[in-house]
């Protein structure tokens, strides 16, 4: 019997580096498809040295390259994307990679009859939520080209499910963090800014009252959810992957001060701030994936502080 093989676009990235070891443990081969413009080549080389992983350097915007690389794969994970902050600065590139790229991967997966495709969607498809916690059936109001492309990706998956029987899961990731994340990443910039100040003996500065919040979910929990979605009996659903806990920026500052072992209070910069809050309803993840988050934000942040010391 042939070994199950996962086509993994964006497989040289941050979340992939935590997901691939679980796939290998579970007996999959992995074919990383990545442009390597931002990929971690050293980590990919380590994976390839196992003999269970190979790298195809390519761009998801080229449908023929995707079709060719998908050949012989039984499963697919699609992570290749342009980040949320870059999508506002350059909507053209965002639409090119995120929309055309999504379509090329989904079409190839449908053509090759893969058993399951897992798509990295995003909590940003909700826009500014009307209520917390955010549920998969809530109204979607994506605000940027990145967020719009994620919602469009989910709709395209539905199209290939209806026309070609593609089996898929779309994971709406909340605020992913953890070791190995690039320092300029959208969600980690606030963590890094606070840490730099605390370590230099200066209090973190918070705009407004620090009420704005995120649902910080650790990358090891995200990786487990990806593999669970690849293997779940249920399919063709979007699923929130978060912790259900909204951590305010003021709380985050205090968690990081404690993790560093400093003695200070955050400073507040009084000004009007658009308060956005995030917290996932993770009932569906529990029921459909059998998944629970295992890393509380205090422990995850403390580990991150130690790793970056």
From TrEMBL:
Pfam families referenced in this protein's UniProt entry, alphabetically = Epimerase (PF01370)
Signal peptide range: none
Domain (NAD-dependent epimerase/dehydratase): give its ranges. Answer: 9-242
Which Gene3D superfamilies does its entry note? NAD(P)-binding Rossmann-like Domain
Superkingdom of this protein's organism: Bacteria
Q: Name the family.
A: Belongs to the NAD(P)-dependent epimerase/dehydratase family.
Q: What is this protein called?
A: NAD-dependent epimerase/dehydratase family protein
Species of origin reads: Yinghuangia aomiensis
